Amino acid sequence: MQGKRILLGITGGIAAYKIAFLIRLLKKSGAEVKCIMTPASCDFISPLVVSTLSENPVGIEFWNKQSGEWTNHVEYGLWADLFIIAPLTANTLSKMAHGSCDNLLLAVFLSMKCSTIVAPAMDLDMYVHPSILRNLALIEKDGVEVIPAENGHLASGLEGDGRMAEPENILTAIQMHFALKEGRLKGKKVLITAGPTYEAIDPVRFIGNHSTGKMGFELAEKCLKEGAEVVLISGPSSLILKNKRLQLIRIKSAEEMLMHVQEHWSTMNFGIFSAAVADYRPISVASQKIKKESEDLSLDLIKNPDILAWAGMNKTKQKLVGFALETNNATAFGMKKLQAKNLDMIIINTLEDKGAGFAHDTNKITILDSHNNLTSFELKPKSEVATDIVDFMIKL
Q1: Catalytic residue of the set 91, 209, 269, 342
Q2: Which end of the chain has less neighbouring CB within 10 Å, N or C?
């Protein structure tokens, strides 16, 4: 976002109070920010607050009644890299859909040379009214990107859809917009596997591991921010990630994961296989819960399909990234796995390093490429580890 010129339009809804936080996030990300307010929005947030945080004068009226100076709406349109309107009220939405122009914000919208993104905010019944849905469809047809309203507590006291997207989510949508235009993975498709697999023993028990899927979800988010289309195949995980360019497929078993990998692999440019797939599964699954009737219980296991090896054997144009979590001799085992699975690079980590492995918010990795070059990194948050991995992958 460094140096990006963001024009922020603020309309008269109670959600306008959150715009102070959005401005701070945009500035912190390195963007330049200018703001336009409708007269009605001044009842909800002070122009002084908006001007102070954005470090620029705020446009409100077409002209200054004291000096007679005209506010040049065309210059706003030429200056901005992106126009974001938040909150978007039903009133402003209607005017945008039908080309009305009775305030400075609308004049700027009709003069924009760049893209416009809107974040609607209104009560739940209003948000699903046929006229609102019709107007949202109209502006989307005109090329405006809509950030869907979120579910939560509303100013009316009701609970439901209509709440303006949180400032952090609006910032993410803005970043994704630029990633789609300028990202290093623009036009590329990435398949990512994440989380554990659960191999059923009976209807209530399974063989599994402690993987949470955090690393895979962080990798998916980073690839999306670089402009990629992502297919994320995840084992059982409580994590959620939403994006128009993300296809999230939830599975339980290794066989299910393999089926979906096989379905999508031929169309991919990259594969990042971070899932902790169970090596074995029970030969037979009991149809009813196994009762605790004896002192011991034996399970006959059979080897699961090797999903990473299948992808390595069947890659054509794809670059393939694997993971090796070890408890000892991590580098040696990683090298062996890289060659055996026909990988382009492998991410090696070990439970010997404090803060690495499953269920942590951090990880410490070493990257080994197909030329046997080793690159080691310090212990970092998994979000930063994902950046290191994707940066390295892009160099391939």
Answers
A1: 209
A2: C
